[in-house]
Amino acid sequence: MSRTLITGGGTGLGAAIARELAGVGHDLVLVGRREEPLRSLAEELGAAWQIADITTGAQGLIERCGPLTHLVNNAGHAHTGAVEDWSAEDLRALLEVHVVAPAMLARAWAAQAPQGGCALNISSTLATRSAPGLGLYAAAKAALSSLTRTLALELAPRCRANALRVGVVPTEMTQGRDLAALAALHPLGLGAPEDVGAAARFLLESRWITGVELPVDGGLLL
Ligand SMILES: NC(=O)c1ccc[n+]([C@@H]2O[C@H](COP(=O)([O-])OP(=O)(O)OC[C@H]3O[C@@H](n4cnc5c(N)ncnc54)[C@H](OP(=O)(O)O)[C@@H]3O)[C@@H](O)[C@H]2O)c1
Questions:
Q1: For residues 189 and 197, what is the distance between their CA atoms, to the nearest angstrom?
Q2: Cβ of 190 below 6 Å from ligand 1
């Protein structure tokens, strides 16, 4: 049985990935900073859960939760601000959660992962394009995409690394955004968390796919 740690596993896309993987028998560890909603989802799915801020102590987190087959680097936060409002503090915070923590978690996970294990990074269409006001977040996701390729190269042939390049899916993170305007940019309209869950399962379970960043974006990048 696969044991899979999902950061940000209590809400939004992380919760949908957890539901999908629980349905095919993964033994799950859900990680986040808030007890709710982690506890209730973990109870529903029969999963383990850990309160942790992923920007502190990646090695310890993997040791407490392991041994782990797969790692899903999903936790994150958005940030909006035009160039004139950028600050080094905001950029550092974004890089900590979207790049530094996933890299350190992947390093600790890889040290104990079995043959066939996979690290899956939840990236964004903003890794390859930009949007006004989202430049710092886009830069952090672009770095996460680069990390995915290096992990895939260096961990082969024992383990794999892949990413999902997600378009707009209504979650806590998109609250306050103009969803009707965003939907108009997606030929297939906005996604649902379950769309991301299904794609995550596909990449985790594949045997011969590594280093890809699969668009799950309703055609946004066409
Ligand atoms: N929704 C979209 O349209 C979209 C599109 C592209 C990519 N994404 C990416 O998808 C991922 C999930 O986002 P979402 O849309 O599902 O939003 P969400 O519901 O706000 O989920 C973010 C999760 O990350 C956790 N988290 C944030 N900072 C953390 C930290 N320092 N340590 C541990 N956990 C932390 C949050 O839990 P706590 O607050 O309890 O810690 C929360 O469960 C993110 O990486 C996001 O960038 C989302």
A1: 17
A2: no
Q: For residue 16, which atom of ligand 1 is closest to its CA?
A: 16
Mean pLDDT of 214-219: 98
Token pair belonging to 42: 């973990």
Residue 65 within a domain: yes
Our answer on whether the CB atom of 124 is closer than 6 Å to any ligand 1 atom is: yes
- 67-104 pLDDT tens trace: 999 999 999 999 999 999 999 999 999 999 999 999 99
How far apart CA 113 and CA 158 sit, in angstroms, is 9
For residue 85, give the CATH number of its domain.
3.40.50.720
Tokens 């993987």 locate to 21
**Strand pairing report for 118-124 and 160-166:** parallel
pTM for this entry: 0.98
In terms of residue numbers, what domain contains 190?
3-215
Protein residue with its CA nearest to atom 31 in ligand 1: 53
Q: What percent of the chain has pLDDT over 90?
A: 98
Catalytic residues: 137
Beta bridge partners of 221: none
Domain count, the chain: 1
